[in-house]
Amino acid sequence: MRVLIVNTSDIGGGAARAAYRLHRALLADGVDSQMLVQSKSSDDYTVVASVSKVEKVKSRLRPTLDAIPVKRYKERTRTLFSPSWLPFSGMVDKINAINADVVHLHWINAGMIKIEDLAKLNAPIIWSLHDMWAFTGGCHYDESCGAYRHSCGECVVLGSKTENDLSKRVFSSKMKTYSKIKGMTVVGLSRWMQKSAEDSTLFKDMKIVNLPNPIDTDVFQAFDKVKARELWGLPQNKKLVLFGAMGATSDPRKGFIELSEAFKNLKRDDVQFVVFGASKPLNAPDVGCITNYVGRLSDDISLVTLYSAVDVMVVPSKQENLSNAIMESLACGTPVVGFNIGGNSDLIEHKINGYLAEPFDTLDLARGIEWVIDNGNYGALCIKARDKVLREFDSKIVADKYIELYTEILSG
What we know:
- This protein is an alpha/beta fold.
- It contains 13 helices and 13 strands.
């Protein structure tokens, strides 16, 4: 069985890391897996990307060029919007030339593949949804507008008041293209994403299943807390609360403002805040306690030691699929607090390995943080956090489920 994993990049960003982990898990399970990307950062020979200098330059330019139609919407929000209109990537020819038995799409934006080109793929398609883009008019998260259930237009993310706007045109392009694709299988990484895809106009007639991302639990496991704090220069005598994401403080969807409000409700001098994914901003907000900014982390060992150094991870996102950060933290035995939205409940079991706060209730978020850090059975919380990941998300377990899906599709 030859499987081709397709993603815009190999290890840069959450979707890339998840796709690459699946690729490595399949290889470990004996599958002939290859990964095709537009932008390659690793030195892994099983990952294929542009090789000539000209192609590399084009790959760097394509994300900027693809975003040009979005620039005219001056009232747009910070949520990512991808038109995926840019022609001449040659990516479909590269995919077909590899001649895989199954083409497994993941995050394919930033100018990697034109929407209409998806109908030109020869092999059966599986598409893992790392966000909502595949069934919306171009937004990666819909900011709860729900238009994808009917048809887009007057896009909230674009700040558009026009019915026949860019989102309407992208939606129509997808509808025409998907109607030409026979037998595509859609994977909702969380139950929430599966349900959202099932409710959408674009995917209503597709086969949609729920399978998660995998994680290597031999890599992501608890590290000695005292040594971890020494490595990061963090105090041994404080309760440490971790928050992190790409663009942690600048992306409103990630909930930094809500978490800051929750911190103000704590009113404790034994707590410190740790932020990764962003450096200290010029005008750093006062959250009511000392805040340690550790910047962007690019390797697993740094993540493991940081998760192990803290007492609790908080993920206050307003919309979230299947969070890598939650999964990684739990695998390291660190409980997680988040709002009860999206795919968070796939990972966090309320008052078993963490706390699910009422959506956007910052007082309840603060209660959740205190419930974890003051818990008399904190050690048991940590054990149950890792047990959850071992049972449901370990690389071997998840890879076997994907192999079963591939086999089913090929035999069907």
